[in-house]
Design the sequence.
């Protein structure tokens, strides 16, 4: 209670100063009134009497200013004196100053770097006007085992919703696309979008140059215009001012450039879209230009619908209105679109749920982890300052003896702590800059705007606040502990045992807290490492050395026979190249964020309401090129393609679900609504993880053919990837120089890209855990070394009385073991809570995995005792006579 009362009195002192100045003003005014009355009695007018009174008293403002200066200058002088004295003290002890600054700089630098990521990803405003009012529109069917946000409204439903809804200020629909564009002497596939005339209006953004796509541009026959991104303007046109007089060649036709978007606008991107399947950035926007027939279609297509809510309209209100409209539209759909009688429903999702929400937990997880590092660094710095303050007991006691009050001592130590914190903040900014330079090498590709992380004004203000906060945290405990010097004891013996005991207890508490935080970080890092190892060791079902390349056809290949001839020639010529063992093609390659689920009917399977499978179109040599194992039956042949009822190959999971307890070879499968055409299963292959590594493979069905609009070539070769890619590009160019050849990589690289998000979070968390672990060991070593130095006389007496070196060593180690034990127990409780919070990030491992927790505790215990062994051995080597003589 005494401490709280003293703290309250210091806080009230600030208000008392203002009250004193008010009292002085009242006193001055009373004197003016007295002199004015005297002047009036002597025959002066009131105005002249007041003027004479002011002259006599020297003027009101001058008098007030003199009073303020008399009260303020000593405070300023005292503060400047503390700063100068603190700088001299730190300059005389460079080892302590450098160690404290570096310790804090590690924590501040890491915290600043992660906050810059949080700022770029979560806090900065998206490049759209009021993004919180943007929503996506869906019409899911609850009876289908497919995510509801996979069903965008058909074009007819969208325009009906647009006509009947009153909840939206604007609505838009667009399609993703990719066009071959000549860049740097080669043809590359550039991500694009076909958008309606309300696309940019709904996003509420303005062009940097030119104009948007308008209503006239979206009429068929008038749609040969394009808007390009800022980055494409810079790379393709070198930022030329006459870009609006130029054009692009897309799909074999010229498109006039009418606008350039500002930097940062690249919507849609994969992390903005519901299915996450978009490119990392969109660079070209052209008109959607739907025909009246297309607008009337109720087939579920590739369009993505979004809208801007009117001001004051909530998502719940818009959802209720949309549900009513969709219920009226259901009878207009065919029965097969409603999945055995189940009707379409309405679903509205917040735009920000896809743009930010998926990465928000990761950002706050990393920020929480780095905050632990900052706390450990602050604890180490506080421990250093406690030890330093203890060495200054004689100096501080002398200042007390000469009249310095307790608050004066506290203020001096806090000033020194503030100098250390500010120096650490400056160095931390440099460390944060270096860490941010490494982020591009760790970018997992699914974190929006991560490349925009920088040390902007908001981050610098955050760093300043963190530096000030850590200064207070590291300085207040040593200051309060040392300020309790007993003047009588000091004057009698020159020592203050109670202060030393308090400092020792404070340092011990800090070490226990640091140990607990380290256990939490090590446990979480261990769980993340085990999860990453589980994902990396998953059986994918394909060869990692297979080289793949995406080849897309344009509108010149409208006829099926044209597409078939092209890909037959391409696969045959690539397969005939030197060093190529097998070459095939598939419409949707594994791990490309693409999925094509559809209904199937398996002859003899009882549950007809739940038969769905992923469908893939492949060439006969595809399985050999990917080295997908054949479990039963045979692969496709060229003759299967021309068969009236082409056979199919299914994966192992399909056979287990739909063809259990019977021979899958020879089973019949139909994909049409009338069940008049049946396909025979001729083979069963191993499961392939198509969509995500961490998802269980779905039932898959492969059909033979060459009729691709776009396809991925898969090539197995003994040659290096670069040579194979160059050979494939040469073949594609010889067949059609106008086609884009891109997205070249091995399947091993695609697997690495699929694990990149988990690798990113695991790498950062492990890095922070390693820093925290190192800081905790240094802190424990420093505490043991300081404890030995304080107990030199006691240890000398023990050894003089016959204590052996082993006894002294064990004495020191027992204290270290006790501190570590308390830290481990506290850390186990905290890690149990923290592990539940990170459960959603784990894969294939329990959040309370005993092996990981025991390993983390064992690592800290063993390394901690090793760190304490050095000062323990030093204590055991003390010469009793020298120790007693020094005292």
Sequence:
């Amino acid at each position: 209670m005494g401490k709280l009362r003293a703290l309250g009195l210091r806080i009230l002192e600030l208000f008392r100063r203002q009250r004193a100045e008010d009292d002085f003003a009242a006193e001055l005014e009373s004197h003016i009134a007295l002199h004015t009355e005297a002047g009036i009695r002597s025959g002066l007018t009131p105005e002249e009497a007041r003027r004479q009174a002011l002259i006599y008293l020297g003027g009101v403002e001058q008098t007030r200013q003199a009073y303020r200066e008399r009260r303020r200058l000593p405070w300023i002088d005292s503060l400047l004196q503390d700063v100068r004295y603190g700088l001299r003290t730190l300059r005389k002890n460079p080892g302590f100053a450098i160690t404290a600054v570096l310790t804090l700089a590690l924590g501040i630098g890491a915290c600043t770097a992660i906050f810059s990521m949080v700022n770029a990803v979560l806090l900065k405003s998206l490049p759209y006007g009021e993004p919180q009012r943007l929503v996506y529109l869906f019409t899911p069917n609850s009876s289908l085992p497919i995510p509801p946000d996979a069903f965008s409204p058909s074009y007819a439903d969208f325009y009906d919703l647009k006509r009947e809804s009153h909840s939206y200020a604007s609505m838009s629909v667009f399609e993703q696309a990719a066009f071959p564009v000549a860049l740097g002497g080669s043809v590359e596939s550039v991500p694009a979008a076909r958008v309606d005339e309300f696309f940019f209006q709904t996003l509420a953004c303005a062009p940097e140059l030119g104009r948007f796509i308008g209503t006239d541009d979206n009429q068929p026959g008038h749609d040969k215009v394009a808007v390009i991104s800022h980055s494409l303007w810079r790379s393709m046109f070198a930022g030329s001012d006459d870009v609006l007089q130029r054009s692009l060649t897309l799909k074999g036709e010229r498109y006039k450039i009418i606008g350039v978007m500002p930097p940062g606008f690249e919507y849609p991107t994969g992390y903005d879209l519901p299915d996450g399947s978009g490119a990392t950035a969109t660079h070209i926007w052209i008109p959607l230009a739907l025909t009246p027939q297309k607008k009337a279609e109720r087939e579920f297509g590739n369009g993505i619908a979004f809208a801007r809510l009117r001001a004051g309209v909530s998502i719940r209100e818009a959802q209720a209105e949309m549900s009513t409209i969709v219920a009226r539209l259901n009878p207009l759909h065919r029965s097969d679109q409603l999945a055995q009688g189940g009707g379409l429903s309405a679903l509205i999702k917040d735009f920000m749920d896809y743009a930010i929400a998926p990465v928000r937990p990761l950002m706050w997880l990393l920020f929480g982890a780095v905050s632990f590092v900052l706390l450990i660094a602050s604890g180490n710095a506080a421990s250093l300052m406690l030890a330093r303050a203890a060495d200054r007991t004689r100096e501080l006691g002398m200042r007390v003896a000469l009249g310095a009050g307790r608050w004066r001592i506290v203020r001096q130590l806090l000033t020194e702590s503030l100098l250390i914190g500010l120096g650490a903040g400056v160095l931390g900014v440099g460390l944060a800059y270096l860490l941010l330079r490494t982020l591009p090498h760790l970018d997992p590709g699914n974190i929006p705007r991560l490349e925009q992380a920088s040390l902007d004004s908001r981050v610098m203000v955050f760093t300043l606040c963190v530096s000030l906060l850590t200064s207070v945290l590291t300085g207040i405990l040593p200051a309060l502990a040392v300020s309790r010097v007993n003047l009588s004891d000091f004057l009698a013996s020159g020592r203050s045992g109670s202060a030393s005991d308090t400092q020792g207890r404070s340092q011990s508490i800090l070490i226990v807290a640091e140990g607990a935080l380290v256990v939490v970080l090590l446990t979480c890092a261990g769980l993340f490492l085990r999860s990453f190892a589980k994902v990396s060791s998953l059986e994918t079902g394909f060869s990692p050395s297979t080289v793949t390349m995406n080849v897309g056809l344009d509108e010149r290949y409208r006829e099926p026979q044209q597409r078939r001839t092209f890909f037959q020639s391409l696969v045959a010529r690539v397969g005939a190249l030197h060093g190529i063992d097998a070459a095939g093609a598939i419409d949707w390659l594994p791990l490309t964020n693409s999925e094509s689920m559809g209904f199937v009917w398996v002859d003899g399977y009882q549950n007809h309401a739940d038969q769905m499978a992923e469908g893939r179109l492949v060439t006969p040599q595809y399985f050999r090129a990917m080295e997908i194992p054949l479990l039963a039956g045979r692969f496709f042949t060229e003759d299967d393609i021309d068969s009236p009822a082409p056979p199919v190959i299914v994966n192992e999971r399909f056979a287990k679900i739909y063809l259990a307890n019977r021979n899958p070879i020879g089973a019949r499968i139909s994909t049409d609504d009338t069940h008049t055409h049946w396909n025979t299963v001729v083979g069963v292959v191993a499961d392939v993880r198509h969509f995500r590594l961490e998802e269980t493979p779905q039932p898959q069905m492969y059909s033979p053919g060459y009729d691709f609009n776009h396809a991925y070539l898969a090539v197995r070769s003994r040659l290096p990837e670069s040579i194979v890619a160059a050979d494939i590009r040469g073949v594609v160019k010889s067949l059609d120089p106008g086609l884009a050849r891109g997205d070249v990589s091995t399947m091993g690289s695609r697997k690495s890209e699929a694990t990149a998000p988990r690798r990113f979070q695991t790498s950062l968390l492990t890095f922070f855990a390693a820093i925290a672990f190192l800081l905790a060991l240094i802190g424990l070593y420093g505490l043991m070394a300081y404890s030995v130095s304080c107990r030199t006389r006691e240890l000398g007496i023990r050894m003089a009385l016959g204590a052996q070196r082993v006894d002294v060593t064990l004495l020191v180690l027992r204290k270290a073991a006790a501190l570590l034990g308390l830290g481990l127990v506290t850390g186990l409780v905290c890690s149990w809570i923290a592990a539940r919070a990170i459960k959603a990030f784990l894969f294939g491992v329990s959040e309370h995995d005993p092996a990981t927790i025991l390993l983390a505790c064992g690592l800290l215990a063993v390394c901690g005792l090793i760190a304490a062994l050095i000062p323990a051995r030093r204590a055991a080597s003390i010469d009793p006579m020298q120790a007693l003589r020094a005292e």
